[in-house]
Amino acid sequence: MTDFIPSRVRSDLGHQKRSSRHAVSRRLRSGTEGHHHRHHAKETVQSAIDLKPPITFDHILRRDKKDSDSSRRGSSTAQQQLDNNTNNVPPVPEKPIKPEDVAKAKKENERREEDLKESLKSVEEVGMSSTRQLDDTYYAILEKASMLRSTVSSLQQLADESQRMQSTFQEDTEKLEKDTEQSVQSLGQFEPQEKRINELVSKLEDARGRTNELNDQLESARLRVEAYEGRENEKVARRRVRLNITWATLLGVLMLVVSVLLAKNRRAVGKQLDGVSQRLVGLADVVDDVVAPISTRLRPSPMRQKYHDIPSLPRHWAFGNLKIIGEKCNPRAGRHPDYGFEEIWNDLDRPAAFMVDLAPVDKRSFLVVAEPSIAESATQPGDKFKYSLPKSDTMQALKPLIGKESIITAEAEEWRNLRKRFNKGFAPAHLHNLSPLIISKTEIFVKRIQDAAETGAVVPLKDFAQDLTTDIITQLAIEKDFESQSIPEGQSHKSSSGILTASRILSTLIATQGQGFDPVGFFDPVRRFKQWYYERLFDRELYSVLEKKLKQEQLQPKKRDVSTKAIVQLALADMEPTPALLWNTVAQIKSFLFAGQDTTATMIQWLCYELSKANHNPRNQEILKKLEDEHNAVFGSGAFSALEILRKPGQAEELLGSKIPYTTAFIRETLRLHPPAGTARIVPDADESNPPVSVNIEGRDARIDGLRVYNCQWLIHRNKKIWGPDADVFNPDRWLDEDFISKLPPGAWRPFERGPRNCIGQELALLEGKVVMAAVTRGLRFEKVGNTGLNGEKEVWGVANVTTVPVDGMTMRFHLKA
Ligand code: HEM
User: Fold this and answer.
1) Which SUPFAM superfamilies does this UniProt record tie to the protein (predicted)?
2) What DSSP element (H or E) covers 510?
3) Does ligand 1 have an atom closer than 6 angstroms to the CB of 712?
4) Does residue 356 sit in helix, strand or coil?
5) Which one of 120, 435, 786, 804 is most buried, by most CB atoms within 10 A?
6) Is the pTM of this model over 0.90?
7) pLDDT of residue 38
């Protein structure tokens, strides 16, 4: 085929072929580029396959020949024609060749030469492109061949490798076969051992059979013994029951006789015990004189060493602080222990807190707090106790009165859940919705005072105030009107088996228990029986009231607006009223009665007492005047118009909320000087989980872990370092002095205590206080009669009756103002 290529073209192609051959050999040599080249070669082969049938030289030449033939044919036809004409036509005389013809022929020749050149050029181009394509195809085939060669050599290697593996495998198999044969042969040597093992196994099986037999025998013996024991126990139990009944009957008779005798001669026995104790004290004084000087040289106990940074009372060598506590806080002194603490505090030069050591009677002592920052540390949330320190163990004495599951004594999450459920019922907005109830009950209260004023009777205001607060709290809590203010004594709920009587007697019984150690009262079986009886009566009555209420509620679902629902109904909303839940709720109602009834009644008594001071004290007359002016401005001019105004929708919330600042100040000041309740918490003993706790007392870091902390509001509220030199003076104006208030330390005023466990009913108590003040200030005059107070002053003091209550029930005479 190359023979057809013109020599110049052929030399070009040769050159190209050589250079591409070099390139291909270069590519084959380069191992790293192998893959790329293989890919390239593949492409090239593919392009070669895809090529259209090449345009051969033969074809081109034939085409050219045709062209030249046709042109030649054209000229030869002309020649032929010419010949024909020459042959057929008589000869024409020869035309002489003119120079124009020569020039024309020359031109014709030149044109033909040009055509030829053109044809040759295109032949050359076609030749070159065909050579290139052929070249590519050639090298593609070359590359494929080399790939095939390398595949064949790889297959060869693989075959060699598998042959080698096969021979190794054969060797290994033979070796393993030999080893296995050897092992099988050597197994025969263990036959004697196997025999012995078999013998042993059969012996063991024999032994197991015998053991099983023995076990069976033992089991039957055990069953016989058990049956015998059971019969014996039954006999013993029957004998014990008979004996117990005999002893209980004997003891019952004996106790009855003793209790009747004690009840009859209670005073006489008490006097005799007093006499004995007097003589013992006399004897102790003699021993004192001898032992006291020696005891001062002895090392103090570890407990005293631990608390040595806390100011403490002088100690008796045998009774520690008990002797002085006995003198200052003696229940027979007829005053609240706070008065005793005040004397001790003064003796100690009014420290921030001091310790009352109860050893040897009680290993846990009290820290009496007179300064707000320490009180705050006991009641505000801490790292370890997120709802503040736990309540003092001494509060367990309240259980019969408030129930075992009371919100007052509950701790941690149990308390949190209760508080969450009941909070909504005590929210100010909800209480304002219920204010018409409070107003209508207060109307009865005012009416009772007006009636007493008309007769001129001297009445313990406590009776009226307690009936009022009882009616309000029962109505608000369970929507039950016990008509405490209307029922005459001895009838219905106030009869000997009435729920109101039960509540009152129970609190008196518990109070007596908390008044100190009363040996006669402590062993008094009549007191214990009474406590059990009234607790049962109280609980059952409340349970049945609650059950009825909830049933009624279920019968008329969604009929009532939530805003006027009772506190308990709100707390039980969406809960299944199981007996367990009802009993738990009974405990909460008892707690509200206990916590909200006496305390608020006490506040009302002190409010009226502070009003009564205007009778003889010019300073208090000024205060009364300011109150009257405020009420005239807010409630209109009528002496008893306030309740009418407050009853109008929305008025109670608006007027009592912000329109009577002086009355609010008057109530705050009353609660400052006459706080009805307090709190006692416990600081757990230091151990692995509770680190030691210290507070700053008079510049010293004093350990207090293991102590009961008593936030003594009486001392905190009268501390001159906080309230100034007139701390003991009743002065409502201090609450309107913004500068003074801004300088008070946090927690200085704490009648409702502070922190997460503060009083849930404080808004209710304040609302009741304001309604009572609005109702009585302008129309009634209070006159304190009877008790002339401490140190000959015309004063009244508090006594402990679980909470702090006025000593004489606040006996008063009432007057209608002209
Ligand atoms: C002037 C009237 C009141 C005073 C001075 C007062 C005072 C207090 C104080 C000092 C505490 C804290 C007790 C403690 O930490 O151990 C307390 C707790 C409590 N108060 Fe009042 N309270 C009054 C009225 C009420 C009323 C009207 C109710 C409800 C009906 C009420 C229900 C409670 C309850 C349930 C607690 C326990 C709260 C708890 O631990 O979450 N209180 N109150």
Assistant:
1) Cytochrome P450 (SSF48264)
2) helix 499-513
3) no
4) strand
5) 804
6) no
7) 43
